[in-house]
Recover the amino acids of this structure.
């Protein structure tokens, strides 16, 4: 068990939090991290390594803030994750674990990349 705590940008929990008395959630189904160029290596690397220890986690997303790009990691087995990249506005990002699908154009609807 990890002795470090991390806080995702977004998480989806099905049911009640596993440890509400500890202010700790250990049963997230989906975790989403919005990363900047300076945080992407940590979010894809060590942070994702900690999140993979959660048996409940089925999907992990990294969302770029400086370009239209989302990576979806889907758990196949305890040791195997499948990576799918989404780059195009018409790409449909499906989160099978919670039955939601969104187009990248909807996710990035109010993002102006020219102001960065």
């Amino acid at each position: 068990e990890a002795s470090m705590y991390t806080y995702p940008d977004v998480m989806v929990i099905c049911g009640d939090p596993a440890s509400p008395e500890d202010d700790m959630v250990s049963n997230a189904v989906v975790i989403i991290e919005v990363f900047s160029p300076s945080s992407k290596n940590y979010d894809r690397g060590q942070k994702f390594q900690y999140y993979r220890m959660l048996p409940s986690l089925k999907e992990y997303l990294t969302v770029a803030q400086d370009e239209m790009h989302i990576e979806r990691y889907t758990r196949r087995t305890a040791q195997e994750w499948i990576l799918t990249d989404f780059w195009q506005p018409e790409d449909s990002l499906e989160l099978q674990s919670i039955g939601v699908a969104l187009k990248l154009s909807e996710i990035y609807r109010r993002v102006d990349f020219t102001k960065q």
Remarks:
- The CA atoms of residues 29 and 57 lie 4 Å apart.
- The mean pLDDT is 87.
